[in-house]
Amino acid sequence: MFERFATAIIRYFSRIGSLASLLNFFTTRHDLLLESTAHGTTKSTSAKPLFIFILGAPGVGKGTISAFLKTAVPGLTHLSYGDLTRYYNKIPGSWVSSFPRRRGTNNPLLPARDAAAMLRATIDTGVRKHGQRIWLLDGFPRTAEHVAEMVAQLPPPDCTLYLFCLPEVSMQRIAGRAATSGRPDDANAARVEERVARINAESGAMLEALEAAGMHIATVDANRDLETVKEEVLGHVQVGYFNINGLIQVRDLKIASY
Asked: Any idea which UniProt keywords this protein has (predicted)?
C-alpha cells in the first residue's frame, strides 16, 4: 500500500515539479505527522533501522549522492566500505592491515567474509551504542561473493541504488577529483582505467546475485545532470522508507557538481 502511494506521488511530481517540490512535500507530511503525534492522534512510525545500499563503479557519483542524502535525510549515517577499509589499514597492527595488498596498490584485499564482518561490527555498534537508525552503505557489495556474505551477515537493504555512467565519464570525474580526494590511485590514469574496468566487469555477476537473493535494484543513469539524478535517487529512497516506516523528513539543498 505504502509503496503504491509513494510511487504515485513520485510520478506526480515528476510531471509537475522539481526536486524542491518533492522535498517540500515530504517535509510537510513529516511536520503534520509530528503535530498529530504531539496531540496524541498518531503513533510513532519508528521501526527497524533503514538500510540503503549505493553501488556503482568509481566516478559514477556515489560520493556526491551520498553527501546529498546525508544532508537531506536527518540522522543518516554514511558508511563507505572503501573509507572504512582505508581507516583500519592505517592503524598499525590492525587485523585489516594484515591482509595481502591488491596488486600495484597499498589497499588490503579482504576476503568477502571478513569484509562483511567488518561492516556488520560497525553497524551493530552504531545501532546499539549510538542509536543510528538510517544507514547508507556505500560501495558494498562489489562482487557475487560479497553478496553471499552480505545475505549471511548483514540486514537486507530496504533500497538498493545502482548508479552507472559511461566509463570515459567515470575516468574524467576521477581525474577531476584527483587533487583533492586524498587517494593516490586517482592520479594514476592507468590504475583508474583498471579500477573502472574491473568493477564494471564484476558488477554484472554482483547484480545477478542480488536479484537472485530477492532484492530489487533501482538502476540510476548518472550520465544526466545532477539535479535530475538527485530527484530520482530521492524518489527511490522515499519508496524504500515508506515500505517500513511511513514518512521521512528531508531538507532541500544544492550540490554544485559531481
From this structure: Hydrolase
